[in-house]
Amino acid sequence: MKLSYLSIYAVVALSLSSSLISAEPLTLTDIMHFKTLQQPVLADDGSIMAVEAQPDRGESDVIIKSTDGSKSFEITNGTQPEVTPNGQFVIATIPASLLDKETKKKAELTQNIVLLNTKTNTQQTFENVKSAHFNDNGQYLAIWFKEEKPAPDSKPAEDNTEQSDSKKKPKLDDADKGTSLTLIHLTTQKEIQLTNVTQYAFDESGIHFVAAVNDHDNNQHHVTLVSLKDQTQRNIYSAIDEQVGELALSNDGRFVGFTAGKLASKRDSREYKLHLIDIKSGKKRQPSSDGWTLNQHASVMFSRDNERLFVGRVPQVIAPTARVKYTDEQSLFDQGVITDNKNLRVWHGDDPKIKPHEVKEYQDELKRTYLAVYHIEADHMVQLADKTVPTINYGEQQRYLVATSDVPYQKMITWAGFYQDVYLVDVNTGRKILVLAQQPSDAIPTLSPNAQFLRYYQQGNIYIYDIAQAVSYNLSGQYDVPFSDEDHDYPSQAPGYGFGPWLADSSGFIAYDKYDAWQFNTKSHNGFMLSNGEGRKQGIEFRVKGLVEDKQPATLKQDQVVLLQGYSHRNKEDEFYQAKIGTAGVKKLTNSKSKLTVLARAKQSEQVLFSTQRFDLYPDIYTATLDSLSSAKALTQLDKQRQGFSWGHAELVQWTGADGESIDGVLIKPSNYQEGKTYPVMVYYYRFMSDRLHAFPDMKINHRPNFAWYTDNGYAIFLPDIRFEIGYPGISAVKALTSGVQKIVEMGVADPKKIGLHGHSWSGYQTAYAVTQTNMFAAAVAGAPVSNMTSAYSGIRHGSGLARQFQYEAGQSRMAESLYKAPQKYIENSPVFYVERIQTPMMIMFGDIDDAVPWEQGIEMYLAMRRAGKDVVFLQYEGEPHHLKKYPNKLDYTIKMRQYFDHYLLGKPAPLWLEKGEAYQEYSAD
Q1: C-alpha dihedral, 64 to 65 to 66 to 69, nearest 10°
Q2: Would you tell me how many other CB atoms lie within 10 Å of the CB of residue 4?
Q3: Residue 402 near residue 371 (C-beta atoms within 8 A)
Q4: Are the C-beta atoms of residues 654 and 663 closer than 8 Å to each other?
Q5: How many CB atoms sit inside 10 A of residue 141's CB?
Q6: Which H/E stretch holds residue 55?
C-alpha cells in the first residue's frame, strides 16, 4: 500500500468539489484566523508530538498528540512548546494577548507558562515568566521569573549609609540584576526556590543544577549548586564584591565553569576572571594566560567529553568612550572641548568596511570574543582565535578545528562578495595551518569526525584535504558528472549542491550533484552513486533526510538504512525512498504525488514526522517509523479549515521560450473554473517558481498576493520560471514573462486583456522593467523595485550597511561588470530611462526605511512616470522596511492591491484613493 492516507484525502477533495456551490467566500478575516502549523517538536522516544498552530493574527494554540493516536491535548493560547524526552510533560509559553499588545505599553506586558502532564491531563500555570526549560533527562523544570514590578505608589527604599566618594558603587546595570527561579522536580512536584538568579545551567547527565545568584542588596554573590538526586543545595563559590557572570556545567556533572568580575567597575568596563571548580573535591582553579582577559560577553562551554572548557576572551576590556563635557565658562570656548562634541563619520578610501557597514556591526564587534580552550587534565590554556583569524567553527574533534578569516577580503566585499581564508587550528597548541585562501563564504569546509580530513567544494569539484599528508585530493574529477549548480545564472563561480553526513568512522561521506546522492571514500578517493544514477536518469533530486540531530551534526554507519527524499524536477512531486549506506540502489516507499517535508526525527527511535501538501491539501502532520511510511497516521487535521471554502487547482505548464529553451511554470485555476471560459490572471514570479506546484498557499496577509483569496474571487494565478542571461536581466525576464503569458492565453484560460503583473524586490524591478518593453499587461504592481541601476549601484543596503555594488558585479542583478566599465548596459537595464514607452498603469510600493533597496528608487520611478504623464500611483508606508511588518499596513496594502487589479482587470469602479489620491494628514497623539 502506498501512502493510503492520501487516497482518503482524494475522496475528501472529490466530495468537496461536488459541494462547491454551497461554499462560503474566503474573506480577509478568514485569512487572519487561518492557522498555520509551525515547526513541531517530538519527544526523544517518539511518543508525543507538540506543535504550535499560529493564526496570521490572534492567539496561537499548542496541539499535543501521542504518535500512537491514543491521546490528544491542547494548550489554549500556547506558543513555543517543549517536550520532555519521555513525552510525559509539555510546556508552552502563553504570551500577552493581541488585545494587550495593541492597547498596553510594552513594559506592562507579561507572559505565562503552562505545564501539561500528558499522563494525568492536568495543567499548571505559572505567571510572569521570563523563560522555562526542562533539563536533558526531563526530570526537572526550571522556571525563571521576570522582575516583580513595584506598586505604582511605592517608593524605593532610601539608602542612608554614608559612603566616601572613593567607595561609592557604580550604578547597577539591569543585566547585573537577578530574579526569582523555581526548580521543580516533576515527579514529586517538590520545588526549590532561588532568588536573584542571573544565569543557570543543567548538566546533561541530570546530576546537578547550578545558578549564578547575585544579591546586591545584601552584598552576597554565589554560585549555588543543587543536587538533582536529593534536592540539596550549597554555595560552592561566594564573594561580596564580585558579580558572577556566565556559567556552565560539564556534561558528567563533575565541573562548574564560570566567570566573575569586580563590582567596583561598571559592567561595560568590568574585567572578569575564569573559574573552574571540581564539584566533588572542591578544588578551584583560575585558568588564564598572558595577553588575554574576559569581559561581560565571555561565554563558557564544556566539550561533550568533559575534557575541555571553551571560553570567549578579549585582548583587553575597553571602556566606552565618553565625550568631554562643558564644565565652566572657559570650556565653552575651548576648541578641543567643542570639537570633541562633533558629530562626524570619516569615510576613508582604505577603510576595510564602509562606514554604514561598520556602524551596523559596531555593537556586534563590541560583543565579539575570541575562542580559547582550557585543557582540564593538562591545566593548559590555549588561545585559538585572534584578530587575524577571528572565527572558530566549533566541533567536538579533539585535535583540530576549522577556523576562518574574512579580514583580508573585507574591503572587496563591497564589489566582489564574501570570501574567507580557511585554516586548521591545532586545539593543543593554537597553531594555524592555512588550507584554502579566498574560499567563498558559503562553501566553508567541514571536518571529519576524527579530524583527519576536510571535505570541501571548489570550482566544480569535490575535494578532501588529508591533514596528516597536507595534501588535497580531487574526488569528483574522475567522473563525467557536473557537481556545480547546473542552473547557476549569476556572474560568479557556480556553487556546489552541498554535502550530506559524514560516516561516523570518517571513512567516507555523502555528497550531491543536482540529482544523485554520492558516497565518497576518504582513503581510496573513489565514489559511487548511492542512488545508482536513478536521479539523473529520471530527473529526481535525491537527498538524505530523517537523521537524528543531537547537538552535533548527524553521522552515518556503513550498511545503515537511510531515508531519501526524491524531488522530481519533471513533475515537481516528492517521494520517499530507502537506501543502504555502502550499497548502490534505492527503493521507492511512497506514491504521494504531492510535496513532502520531513519535519522531525526522534532521537531514541525511528519515529519521524512529516507533512504532505498540495495547493488544495493543507500540510497536516503525519507520523510513521522509517519502515512504515506507507501506513502513516495523521496527527493534525487543519485541512478542515479550508473545507468550507472553494479552492483553486494548480497544474504544471511547460512552454518554449523566445530563445528555444524549455520553461516551466504553475497555473492555478480559479476555484469556480469552467472549461472554455477565460479569466483574469495575476502573474506572480521571482526566479524559479515551478517547484511551488504542490505548495499549499501561504495563508497570510502581507506584501504578497494571497493566492487562495484571488482564486476564490475569479482570478487565475500564473507562476512562471525566469532564467536569466548575465548582463541582460531585464530583457531575460520580459522574454520569459511574455512567452509564458502567451502560452496560457493559447490554452484558453487567460483573458489576454486582463493580465496583471505583480513583483516585489527583485521581481519588483523586473515588473518595472517589463512594462517599458511590452503592453501585454493591463496593470502592474511593483513592490520595492530598483528603477535606476546607475544610482542603485552605489546605494546602501541599510539593513546590513553593505554597498549594493556586489549585487550587480557578482550577484542577483547579474551585470557582471562595474557601472564604470559598462555604463550603457546599466542604462539599458534601467526602467527609468524608458518611461515614455510605458502604456501600463503601475502602482509602486515602498517602505520608507527599506533596509534592502533604497526607497528613493521608487521615488525616481514615480517622478519619471509623473513627468511623462503616465498612469502611476506610489504607496509610501511610513516606518516600514523591505517587507511590511505592521499589520495595519499589510492589510491596507493587501486591500489596495486587490482594488487596483479589480479596477484595471475587472472594470470595477476606482476607489477614491486611486481616483483622486489622498491629502497629507497628521493625527493627534491621543
Answers
A1: 160
A2: 11
A3: no
A4: yes
A5: 23
A6: strand 48-55
Task: Please provide the DSSP assignment of 204-228 as one string.
Answer: TTSSEEEEEEEETTTTEEEEEEEET
Quote the pLDDT of residue 1: 30
Q: Is 479 helix (H, G, I), strand (E, B) or coil?
A: coil
d(CA 274, CA 298): 9
Kindly give the pairing relationship between strand 779-783 and strand 750-760. Answer: parallel
| C-alpha cell of residue 547 | 537523521
User: What is the distance between the alpha carbons of residues 606 and 589, in angstroms, rounded to a whole number?
Assistant: 15
Phi and psi at residue 254, to the nearest 5° = -90, -35
Share of the chain above pLDDT 90, in %: 93
Q: Calculate the alpha carbon distances from 416 to 761, 804, 809 in Å.
A: 21, 10, 7
Q: Cβ distance 579 to 586 under 8 Å?
A: yes
Cell triple for residue 387? Answer: 584578530
For residue 1, count CB atoms less than 10 angstroms from its CB and return exposed for 0-12, middle for 13-18, buried for 19 or more: exposed
Distance CA 645, CA 708 (A): 10
Cβ contacts of 13 within 8 Å, gap of 6 or more: 616, 617
Q: Please give the torsion angle defined by the CA atoms of residues 443, 445, 446 and 452, in that order, rounded to the nearest 10 degrees.
A: 160
Would you say 864 and 787 are in contact if contact means Cβ atoms under 8 Å apart? Answer: yes
Paired residues of 392 in beta bridges: 403
Q: What does R_g of the chain's alpha carbons equal in angstroms?
A: 31
The C-alpha cell at 39 is: 515547526
pLDDT band at 10 (very low <50, low <70, confident <90, very high): very low
Among candidates 417, 412, 409, which has minimal Cα distance to 390?
A: 409
**Where are the alpha helices (H) located in 247-354, listed in sequence order?**
335-340
**Longest Cα pair distance anywhere in the chain, in angstroms?**
92
Among candidate residues 547, 557, 692, the one with its CA nearest the CA of residue 619: 692
Left (φ > 0), alpha (ψ -120 to 50) or beta: where does 123 sit? Answer: beta
Nearest-CA neighbor of 898 among 758, 752, 698?
758
Per-residue pLDDT reduced to its tens digit, 165-201: 445 667 899 999 999 999 999 999 999 999 999 999 9
Q: What angle do CA 256, 267, 353 make, to 5 degrees?
A: 100
Answer whether 669's CB lies under 8 Å from 711's CB: yes
Q: At what angle do helices 762-773 and 729-746 cross, to 10 degrees?
A: 70
Residue pair 727/693 in contact (Cβ under 8 Å)? The answer is no
- Inter-residue contact 139 to 186 (CB < 8 Å): yes
Q: What is 521-585 written as a DSSP string? A: ETTT--EEETTTTHHHHHTEEEEEE----SSS--EE-TT-EEEEEEEETTT--EEEEEEETTEEE
- Spell out a b/e string for 354-367, using b for 16 or more CB atoms within 10 Å of the CB, else e: bebbbebeeeeeee
Q: Are 374 and 428 in contact (CB under 8 A)?
A: no
- Please provide residue 14's backbone torsions phi and psi, each rounded to the nearest 5 degrees: -65, -45
Under DSSP, the state recorded for 96 is P
Q: What angle do CA 224, 228, 232 make, to 5 degrees?
A: 55
160 contacts: CB under 8 Å, gap ≥ 6 = none
Instruction: Give the mean pLDDT of 719-726.
Output: 97
pLDDT tens across 660-670, in order? 999 999 999 99
Distance CA 636, CA 733 (A): 40
CA dihedral 381, 382, 387, 388 (to 10 degrees): 170
Amino acid at 786: V
The number of residues in the chain equals 926
Query: Alpha-carbon distance 73 to 120, whole Å?
Result: 11
* C-alpha span between 848 and 845 (Å, rounded): 10
Amino acid identity at 464: I
